[in-house]
Amino acid sequence: MKTIGEADRLAAWGDLREFLRLSRQRQELQVVRGADPYLEMGALYELSLEKKYPPVLMFEEIKGYPATTRVATNVRNSPLLVGNIDLEAVQRLRRERRKSIEGIAPQEVQDGPVTQNILRGADVDIDAFPAPVWHPLDGGRYIGTECLVITKDPDSAWVNVGTYRIIVHDAKTLGIFIEPGKHGNVVRHKYWQQGKACPVVVSVGQAPILGNVAGAASKQGESEMAVAGGRLGRPIRIVRGEETGLPIPDDAELVFEGEMPPPSVETRPEGPFAEWTGYYASDIRPEAVIKVSRIYHRDDPIILGQPPAKPTYPGRQTDLADTAALWDAIEGAGVPEIKGVWKLAGGGRRLINVISIRQLHAGHAKMAGLVAAGCIGGAFLGRIVIVVDDDIDITNTAEVMWALATRWDPKTQTDIIDGCWTGHLDPMLPPAKRESGDMTNSRIIIYAVRPFHWKDKFPKVNQFTRSKLEEVRAKWASELPFLAL
User: Fold this and answer.
1) What are the φ/ψ torsions at residue 301 (nearest 5 degrees)?
2) CATH no., domain 320-457
3) Topology of domain 6-305, per CATH?
4) How far is CA 61 from the centre of its chain?
5) DSSP string of 313-359?
6) What percent of the chain stands above pLDDT 90?
7) DSSP of 195-214, one letter per residue?
């Protein structure tokens, strides 16, 4: 993998077009011309996920749409932004998160590239922009898969930025799906309870850092734009929406502004949509709509597409931002000696969390497991928490399974907890619970650690020390090619 300087990396995080320029320069971008937005783009995208680092795909001259509109995928899977997918990368993100705790507030400006074109009234036409049918059984054209949904709490100055899926209903109407309990849902319900529509802005193309912070776990009241500014070391520049006054990134590519009427006023069928769990679990339901009154876009706008896919593909990388947030939350709750946090392959963003600890006392493993299952980064839509000793390489699935096979007694080292927070995407949520709105599930916490009260008598591991192996490698590497790194 080609190395990149810190200045270039920050520039790529902070500017989508600079990211694309650098990706092209590094030969990590593939232009695709003439693809059909009905399933063909989605199939090409899914084929790209067979690579651990899939190429950035830039779809141009998309069938049925103006040549001036483009769709880019695999932006946040790029080695340019991700780097090595390991615990050091998670630690780097954690250091950056700590630097940006107070954040840098957005800077308001009068105009920017996003205001190059503003469509109002009869000129509003969502259908002029590419909205692919990404998966074979999707219920419509989804333009928002790597988007920002921006709302403001009516009771405070808090502006929330989240990522929720957005479907195109018609030329002036979008549909939106937000799981119960998510911040965007909390905010809009405050308006609805007053009988008001919720003002909203949706950006479907923007700096990669904004998608990164919008999709990661955050605290209620926390400004994602300020966090992004802190990560970049400079403020995110914003313009104000003409209709709502909500902040819009000044270099966003394509933005829709409008309002979400209360469900009592209007809903439309939304879904199904193939989600990151690998299933069409959320089915079709009446969901809120967004009545679009303004469209802002740059010249030759670029839409970001990052539709979910089955989490078994190599390109469905461990989500480093979510992993860093979970690690921070566990330590923030006071659990000591956390040596690593990882998301096991196949579990996607949330389903299988692995926690490595250096045991200090009896009950330490249980403390870590319970916190991991209930804290901000682990509570929603989890399934399995695995706690292991710190000699286990938690980035290696075989090592984690070895810990389960040899250090876990299912009867005495397991907790099953009911009544945990889940959502419509959970494929194991029974139909009766879906229909009643009971968004809860159970969790298993597995303590695959040496039992603390006799850990010193636990059988020794059959393995050379890493230092001894490297000493022998250095001695023999010139004579034995298989030893070359």
Assistant:
1) -65, 150
2) 3.40.1670.10
3) Pnp Oxidase; Chain A (2.30.110)
4) 28
5) STTS---HHHHHHHHHHHHHTT---EEEEEE-TTSTTTSEEEEEE--
6) 89
7) T-PEEEEEESS--HHHHHHH
